[in-house]
Design a protein that fits this description.
The chain is mostly helical and about 170 residues long. The chain is about 35% helix and about 5% strand. One of its GO terms (cellular component) is protein kinase CK2 complex.
């Protein structure tokens, strides 16, 4: 990305535009600013200022390195909210997360899942609702699994149960 592009977009725009970050959805500014949603997260006001700044200027030296983690943890909370589930639902229906590599799943759309809610434990995986298996995504993503957490697919499908189609039972 050229420096002129960096200078004309917000940190969130810049971050979401990085190759490999396509699993993430945009967390609205009002959600990020709500102190209730920040509860329990370690952060510095400078990081929040960088994330919410309408224009990013990476040459100013105001990037601290913790923005990715902080945005990721807010993202994990947001995708469990009604608005977040709607945003992830759109991405799921478009197939943004990829499809199950298991042939018997017939290219079932998948969801991102973290194997841990603790930052730095593992990268994101994809979860198939048909075979209930987790796989490494085909996309070139190195997102931390904590940005989604281990319970996201369960929450998603409990709120939208008609989206799953179980594998055909060969005994019937």
């Amino acid at each position: 990305m050229s420096s002129s592009q960096n200078n004309n977009s917000s940190w969130i725009d810049w971050f979401l535009g990085i190759k490999g970050n396509q699993f993430l959805c945009r967390v609205p500014t009002d959600y990020v600013q709500d102190t209730f949603n920040q509860m329990g997260l370690e952060y510095f006001s400078e990081i929040l200022d960088v994330i919410l700044k309408p224009v990013i200027d990476s040459s100013s030296g105001l990037l601290y390195g913790d923005e990715k983690k902080w945005y990721g943890m807010i993202h994990a909370r947001y995708i469990r909210s009604e608005r977040g589930l709607i945003a992830m639902h759109r991405k799921y229906l478009r197939g943004d997360f990829g499809s199950c590599p298991n042939i018997s799943c017939d290219r079932q759309n998948t969801l991102p899942v973290g194997l841990s809610a603790v930052w730095g434990k593992s990268t994101v995986k994809i979860h198939c609702p048909r075979c209930k298996s987790n796989f490494h995504p085909k996309s070139d993503t190195q997102l931390d699994g904590a940005m989604f957490g281990p319970s996201f697919p369960d929450i998603f499908f409990s709120m939208l149960p008609n989206l799953t189609s179980p594998l055909d039972d060969p005994r019937t």
